[in-house]
Amino acid sequence: MKKKTMQISNGVDEKKLNIVLAGQANVGKSVIFNHLTGLHQHIGNWPGKTVEKATGTLHYKGYTIDVLDLPGIYSLATYSIEEIISREHIALQKPDFVVNVVDGTNLERNLIFSLQILELGSPAVLALNFVNLFKEKGIEIDYKKLEEILGAPVVPVAAIHGKGISEVLDRGIELVNSKIKPKSLRYGQEVETEIKKITEFLTNIDLSYPKRWLVIKLLEKDKEIERLFEKEHPEILKKVKESILRLEEIHEHDSAIIIANERCHLASEIVKKIMKITKPSKLSLNERIDLLTLHKIWGYPVMLAIFALMFLTIFKFGNWFSSVLGEITANWQIRWENIFGASILTSFSWMAIKSVISLIEIALPYIIPFYLILYLLEDWGYLARAAFLMDNLMHKIGVHGKACIPLMLGFGCNVPACLSCRIMETERERFLTGFLTTLVPCSARTVIIMGLVGKFVGINWAFGLYL
Amino acid sequence: MKKGKELFLINLKPDEDAELISILGGQMVTKRLADLGLTPGTKIKVLRKAPFFGPVEIEVRRSKLVLGRGIASKILVKKYEPR
């Protein structure tokens, strides 16, 4: 595949850059993506929202920048299809730079991933997100020192307020122009010796992946990479096996675990050097709320109360708003006839208008607050909490606790609910959840249930239908 | 604190500390957990357990993680005994 490079010589307008947003799940990649491109990629406060990759273009300081938003992944191993796609993209398409979005409040875990990106050898900018929460959590980070250790620019970002995003671009462009490669971070001595040994065998072999990375992957017993060597260089695989055996003898663990352990160790060493937590153990507001919403007994009444309140609010508000609309439009028929005169034609056309009005009267007052409340619950992260509480129940039906999210979204509208089934990991779970969501009464169905059953049989009967 | 008896993560009570010993599972699971920072020797603290045999929330490497029961019952840990 041909690499798209900058064409500075062709004048200012021709400068093109390809950048990639990569990071773990739920760190705010899509928020940054939206800020960059002005697009409206849907964002949600639960991990795994972005399943497919999204692309957009922006113009910045004379550059045309293509941005790719990769799905959130926890590593660059070959565990899931997303990870393979992301890895192939970064390694083979060679973007001009990678924006590694990092959750600053979970720095240590996120760094494990960052180390893997740096290993891939492409220029990277660390966008340290959630700095707006640092004060509350008492976190202090020495950005300069982190930059020194990693050999890559680190930019504090508060994506939700749009802060720091243009600096990310500035630093990235700077990086591209300076052509500085990230430092390769060193692991423990035993591992490094083996890496060195195998790298020597690779000197005459041309592969599009960076060599050090290939060696590390081979030591990790990565199946995809092993396949690359299987046919033409089986002798290298033999050498790798010897190295693996030596390592496993020393550490008494699987070699993949040894390497992962090295990475974890490195991340924790880095964090020790650059992060200070000043006021520990004081519960944040979030944690205090979690004490209640995730409580093993009280969590359930709270959940029931939240959903009961949601439906009640929607019903009460809808009812009131609907009657207000009804009053407003009550004398429109007389006015209509005053203007156009009373004839068969006008009464016919009035019938048409009337049906549109009543549709608005009935549907709108219920649907709008529904979406609003669901949006808020989603945004505050309550849906993810509910998934935690409902996990076991969901497992009884044969799906992961996450299935709760599509099911609850289904109360709003079945279409986004069905779409969100993509967060489920296996084909089987996707199918099951997708099927279940269609059985959830959506807001439009709720309108009919509340409006008709409620009106003619009584509101208790209408609620009874949900049990 | 000194190290005490070995047991599975699932059997720890909230607020108990332990150290990861090994994961009894396939390479996939082990690797995935390692990517999340769960490697042998890692310090783990149980924060809360969801009721009705639901998932377990733990603190590991200064961040929080929720593990399903299935996985939590395959992680062998050594409990730290309070002195």
On the 0-100 scale, what is the average pLDDT of chain A?
Answer: 82
Strand order of the largest sheet of chain B: 1-6-2-3-4-5
Number of DSSP strands of chain B?
A: 6
Number of domains of chain A: 3
Strand order of the largest sheet of chain A: 2-3-1-4-5-7
Rg value of chain B: 12 Å
CATH architecture of the largest domain in chain A: 3-Layer(aba) Sandwich
What is the fourth-level CATH superfamily of the largest domain in chain A?
P-loop containing nucleotide triphosphate hydrolases
**CATH third-tier fold name of the largest domain in chain A:** Rossmann fold
Radius of gyration of chain A (Å): 28 Å
Structural class of chain B: alpha+beta
Q: How many strands, which pairing sense, and closed or not: the largest β-sheet of chain B?
A: 6 strands, antiparallel
Proportion of residues in β-strands of chain B: over 45%
Class derived from helix and strand content of chain A: alpha/beta
For the terminal residues of chain B, how far apart are their CA atoms? 6 Å
Can you write the helix and strand succession of chain A as a string? Answer: EHEEHEHEHEHEHHHHHHEHHHHHHHHHH
Query: Which sheet architecture does the biggest sheet of chain A show?
Result: 6 strands, mixed
Low-confidence stretches of chain B: none
How far apart the termini of chain A lie comes to 57 Å
* Total number of strands of chain A: 8
As an assembly, this protein is: heterodimer
